[in-house]
Amino acid sequence: MMNLATASRTFQLLTRILDVRSSTEPFLPAAPEKPAIPLGDAAQPFPRAAPESQGVSSRQIRSFLEELDRDKSLYTQSVMILRNGTVLCEAAYGAQDLRAAKYTFSACKSVVSLAVGLLSDDGVLSVHDEVAGIFDEAGTTALRRRLKGMTVEDLLTMRSGVLFTEAEALTETDWVRRFLGATLKGEPGKEFAYNSLNTYLLAAIVRLKAGKSLTELLQERLFDPMGITGVHWETCPKGIEKGGWGLYIRPEDLAKLGQLVMDGGLWQGERLLSRAYIDAAATAYAVPPETAGDFNYGYQIWVGRRENTFLFNGMLGQNVLGFRDSGIIVLTHAGADTDFQESRYFEIVSRYFGGAFPSRLPEDRDAQSGLASFVRSLSAYSRPPEFAGEAAAPFLNRSFTVRDERAPSAGLLPMVLQALYNNYTAGVVSVAVSEKGGMPELIYREKDAMYRLPVGLGRPAVTELDFRGNVFHVAALGRFTHDEEERPVFYIRLEFIETPCVRILKLVSDGPRLFLRQTETPGVPYVSEKLCQTARSPLYRPLLLLAAGGAEEDYLRFKTRQVLSPELDCAEEGPEK
Description:
Blueprint (H helix, E strand, L loop, with lengths): L3 H15 L39 H13 L5 E8 L2 E7 L9 E2 L5 H14 L18 H7 L4 H5 L9 H4 L5 H7 L14 H15 L3 H13 L5 E2 L13 E3 L1 H12 L3 E2 L2 E2 L3 H7 L13 E3 L4 E3 L4 E6 L3 E6 L4 E7 L10 H9 L11 H14 L19 E5 L12 H6 L7 E9 L2 E8 L2 E6 L1 E2 L3 E7 L2 E13 L5 E9 L5 E9 L2 E9 L2 H12 L5 H8 L4 H12 L2 E6 L5
């Protein structure tokens, strides 16, 4: 079970988040975690070549990209396809940018495994080392007895049995101490139970055994030799990398790490990791439930059950999928409502790239040209800019004060990112639209901050926004339209392009009043299902009942909509300057 004090804090925090009439007060002091990371191309890039030169059809790749585009439930953001260490195709959907360092969520667990492999190769750490013998915090006889038998391998394979989870970590400062003292569910090494704090403890072990941080070790041994730059890894309150999440890395640089696994630890002919460790890491040790997807689990790397594949996988759709027989790697970023491999993406990618491929195909210039044209069409930046016309008149140079009891819980930063960064809004105060350089500019005021961002029409406009020291690139794309009652609507889509998160604003003009409708993805379906799953557990149902004021699934969906999809009533101020 949860520690009672931690459980109380966790559900108190949930109570605060679900109370739309007041701003969320965090338990831990907010501190900046996400610095500005410049957009930029990868250093030491992969070579590029026509798909046919590597035995893959341009028509096949185009069909694959088209199918991903048609299935809007996948929320595909970017794709990169490689064979034999050569990029065959790279595509960014909508306002996404392949030059951005992307948040990986759990895909970075596989990167932690590579760091463990470095220490294993050095003889500094064995996967069979007992966890209790590594930490001074495990010094008491009772604690050592309880942790007896738990090994580094148990952490790597998600079989530690420890119940201290990410949700509890949001209200704790000493994650190592809480992990080591947490309740165990069964005997270590037996049952698979996915828990990102296992990976966090591996990051802490790397720090102790290497005498330097996880990032410093990787920078020296992998990132520098491979030309991986612009990396940022968030840390816990004690300064240790989160390990199981929190890594920002450019797609091409993440693909390099996938290629390192594909090539058995070699990078451009230089051995960086032993084949013995790579082979062990990509071997199945644990069998997750079938509902998680069609993969077993190795050393923080997923392993295909029916295909000779390996996978770095993160929630919402970060995937580096390697087909070991053909040497093809398919890397994707997305914002789908999934935790593991439940979406049909994996059926699609296997259908296109899971078979045998020749070493080379005849050149097909028409297909190559068609593929390049389609890739350009996917990007919103390929479209010509538009200018505000008469349809903008109901909004331009007007300012509206939010007069709604739900305003204190509504902010510009998506709620998923607010919770992730312990960085909760103080509440929206007003919205306004001015004009700058022929394009509309949104002015979004919160109680303690103001955000100004140009909104592109036709093609996105990208702005850096600072949320209490957490800096994001935000691509804004808008259009003027009408609702079902023929009221003027200014629709604005804000993509936080380093993350899977999207904020959608709809400004609905109704004479002197304005309705501000906010939604986000991942949003109500994903979050409400999480709450409903919690409510189905006899262990957590009473606590959720207290936190949300009810535990019925329809009620929980209603509460989620209140928080993630509010409609706020606004009244006009004077002209915006």
